[in-house]
């Protein structure tokens, strides 16, 4: 938009952009500006800090924003508080040579004061899409000023924009009905699209670990507390766990109720159910390229259908990680396993001896149950072992009964995903 010849070629790298108003549009401008190599700060008295952190933006005071920025982009509503908030006093606090962009409302700027700021060089350029009076008068000093670029505020009224919005709405509704993640829900915590993309396989892992955990709890044992540990190399400000917590809640509650859990109602529903979920980050010295190394879920003070999931502390404990984009179960109690969380799972604890895999495999084959993944974890040679078997189909009761009758099998459980 900086079309005057003497300003062509101004580099944005390293320049500071102040986004005034950090709603949907302001945050999208911030994301794009960061992609251009700019340092982005924002002022918005109502913006939550986690929204700014998710985009990598620092929230600052109004005076700090206008006094340090090279570029100031306005995205605030017109209210009694913001009316002519950019006036002679405001312009006097700006860095000399700042550039001002207004795509919000014309009334937030005192237009006569802006002309004076342009004339004395405090504002080097202004790009204006809105005016106090629209359309502005033909003889407007602001419109005629050589350092002002104007546009007619018609972006959302074009045929292309209307089609784009209609398509976006339809895709968002279909995605929500299919249970997919959404970055545009107005009544949910803001999770940027790139964060959703990065966390997508971990979201699947979180929900499936929740489903496994609740099925391991023996009937009659009420779940009151769940502890979730995120093993990660990233710092607290670089890992937004709200989505993961919601999906763990979804995995735990949906199999035992008729409720539908999503990012909007997860915390509220958990509170209604008397379910307290605590979270912790466990730092590891690994590559921060992946947001999470593994997720561990522990349920204290309950009985288990599969005793081998109980730790020395008496908690049900399972752990999983993402491998090549696919969720895997990697630990059951104190036993290390490695089974893909696709389809369903059979867990068997047996005496570690030859032929166990074959015996269980034959039973499943005789009942036309396909094995898609298998792993064995053991305490030591010829001692106790856990066999984790991924199966595509749900075995019939007869198949499960025969597995339980294998002499070396001490306990088993079928878990439906």
Automatic annotation (TrEMBL):
InterPro entries: ACT-like_dom_sf, ACT_dom, Ado_hCys_hydrolase_NAD-bd, ASB_dom_sf, D-isomer_DH_CS, D-isomer_DH_CS1, D-isomer_DH_NAD-bd, NAD(P)-bd_dom_sf. The keyword Chloroplast applies. Residues 345-417 form the ACT domain. GO terms for cellular component: chloroplast stroma. Its main location: plastid. It catalyses: (2R)-3-phosphoglycerate + NAD(+) = 3-phosphooxypyruvate + NADH + H(+). Pathway: Amino-acid biosynthesis; L-serine biosynthesis; L-serine from 3-phospho-D-glycerate: step 1/3. SUPFAM superfamilies: ACT-like, NAD(P)-binding Rossmann-fold domains, Serine metabolism enzymes domain. Pfam families: 2-Hacid_dh_C, ACT, PGDH_inter. It is found in: Plastid, Chloroplast. Its EC number is 1.1.1.95. The keyword Iron-sulfur does not apply. GO terms for molecular function: NAD binding; phosphoglycerate dehydrogenase activity. Keywords: Chloroplast, NAD, Oxidoreductase, Plastid, Transit peptide. Belongs to the D-isomer specific 2-hydroxyacid dehydrogenase family. This is phosphoglycerate dehydrogenase.
């Amino acid at each position: 938009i900086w079309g005057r010849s003497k300003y062509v070629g101004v580099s944005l790298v390293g320049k500071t952009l102040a986004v005034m108003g950090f709603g949907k549009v302001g945050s999208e401008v911030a994301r794009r500006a960061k992609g251009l190599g700019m340092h982005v700060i924002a002022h918005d008295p109502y913006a939550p800090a986690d929204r700014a952190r998710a985009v990598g933006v620092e929230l600052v005071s109004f005076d700090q924003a206008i006094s340090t920025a090279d570029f100031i982009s306005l995205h605030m509503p017109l209210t009694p508080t913001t009316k002519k908030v950019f006036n002679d006093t405001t312009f006097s606090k700006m860095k000399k040579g700042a550039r001002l962009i207004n795509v919000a409302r014309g009334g937030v700027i005192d237009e006569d004061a802006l002309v004076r700021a342009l004339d004395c060089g405090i504002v080097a350029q202004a790009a204006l899409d809105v005016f106090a009076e629209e359309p502005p008068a033909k003889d407007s000093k602001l419109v005629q000023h050589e350092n002002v670029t104007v546009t007619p505020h018609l972006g959302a009224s074009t045929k292309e924009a209307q089609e784009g919005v209609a398509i976006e709405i339809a895709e968002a509704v279909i995605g929500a009905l299919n249970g997919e993640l959404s970055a545009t829900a107005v009544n949910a915590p803001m999770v940027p699209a790139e964060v959703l993309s990065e966390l997508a396989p971990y979201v699947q892992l979180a929900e499936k670990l929740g489903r496994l955990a609740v099925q391991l709890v023996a009937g009659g044992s009420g779940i009151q507390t769940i502890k979730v540990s995120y093993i990660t190399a990233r710092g607290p400000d670089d890992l937004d766990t709200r989505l993961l917590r919601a999906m763990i809640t979804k995995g735990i509650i949906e199999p035992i109720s008729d409720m539908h859990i999503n990012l909007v109602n997860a915390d509220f529903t958990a509170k209604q159910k008397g379910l307290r979920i605590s979270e912790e980050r466990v730092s590891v010295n690994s590559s921060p390229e992946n947001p999470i190394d593994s997720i561990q879920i522990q349920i204290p003070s309950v009985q288990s259908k599969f005793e081998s999931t109980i730790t020395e502390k008496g908690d049900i404990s399972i752990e999983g990680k993402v491998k090549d984009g696919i969720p895997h179960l990697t630990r059951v109690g104190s036993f290390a396993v490695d089974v893909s969380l696709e389809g369903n799972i059979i867990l068997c604890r047996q005496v570690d001896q030859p032929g166990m895999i074959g015996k269980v495999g034959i039973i499943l084959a005789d009942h036309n149950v396909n094995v898609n993944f298998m792993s064995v974890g053991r305490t030591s040679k010829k001692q106790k072992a856990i066999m984790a078997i991924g199966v595509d189909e749900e075995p019939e009761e007869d198949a499960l009964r025969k597995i339980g009758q294998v002499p070396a099998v001490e306990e088993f459980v079928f878990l439906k995903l």
